[in-house]
Amino acid sequence: MKLLDRLRDRQFNKMIEDFIVRDEEGQELVTRIEETYKIKIRPLNYNAVSSYFLIDMLEKAFTEGNISILPSEVTALDVGMGEWHYAPALLSFLRFWKGPREVSLEGVDFPERHHRKLVNQLQKKWGLKAHWSDVMDLNQKSKYDIIFMIHMLGGPRHCRSFGVPYRRPSLMFPHIQSLGKPNSLLVIIAYTWAGESAIVNCFTRESRLTEDIYWPQLGKKFISVIDNRFGFHNNRIYICKSPYVDLEACKRDEKENEEFDALLDMTLSS
């Protein structure tokens, strides 16, 4: 069964809900997140539990990065929103982390991605704004306080497998930096096992507020129950403060990515 089919499977999601209800650590996480961040997602399916993990991960990273003060009004952008099931969790975290505060959350993704119906429903319910375009075409200079890049795609080959254009880091990251206000934050979440986690090499060391692996004991139990590596329970998280782009490092990273992909393509075709 494909991943998306599993996420929509009732029996699969019932198994997840039963696990969280019976697990003491799981119940503690859900209760604490709901009370602190004023959010309650039901049913407790895969998307809901992953959303709670996301808030827990952001909470730990912001604490480690000593990010205790955010503006009284925050404008945030999520690059590569996909179906955006985690948007309510992201919105709630920004509202109530050392808050409350007013938050405007926007997302951007390629118009070819087939999630418009789900995203439109979220926009209406939660007051979100979606931009259906390439982020490189987004003209919002110095608008955002925080920019998120969650589970972004890696090199050329990875992008092709998802049917989306590859954007060179040396072009993409300077543009993304330009979208943020001075001293804005860039938050990157990447799978620990994917090549995308090396993307932090594109940023200056002095700009990095935190680099952490989020792999809690509850996440390990969760992954054993659902037999699935995807989600917010096994990730690297990086937070950088603008200006953060290391252009020469970006060029080295994209060259290595392209050479590796070319070698892999040649190996697979032989």
Describe the secondary structure blueprint for this structure.
Elements: H1 3-8, H2 10-22, H3 24-37, H4 46-64, E1 73-79, H5 87-96, E2 102-109, H6 116-126, E3 129-132, E4 144-150, H7 156-161, H8 169-179, E5 180-191, E6 208-214, H9 217-226, E7 235-241, H10 247-269
Parallel strand pairs: 1-2, 1-4, 2-3, 4-5
Antiparallel strand pairs: 5-7, 6-7
Helix pairs in contact: 2-3, 4-5, 8-10
Q: Can you give me a brief rundown of this structure?
A:
The protein has 10 helices and 7 strands. By secondary structure, the protein is of the alpha/beta class. The chain starts with a helix and ends with a helix.
Structural commentary:
The chain has 270 residues and is of the alpha/beta class. It has one domain: Vaccinia Virus protein VP39 (Rossmann fold). The protein contains 10 helices and 7 strands. It has a 7-stranded mixed sheet with strand order 3-2-1-4-5-7-6. Helix 2 packs across helix 3 and helix 8 packs across helix 10. The mean pLDDT is 87.
CATH topology: Rossmann fold
Low-confidence stretches: none
Mean pLDDT value = 87
Q: Sheet bearing the most strands, described?
A: 7 strands, mixed
Give the number of domains. Answer: 1
Helical content class: 40-55%
State the distance separating the first and last CA atoms: 29 Å
Per CATH, which architecture?
A: 3-Layer(aba) Sandwich
Structural class: alpha/beta
Cα-atom radius of gyration:
18 Å
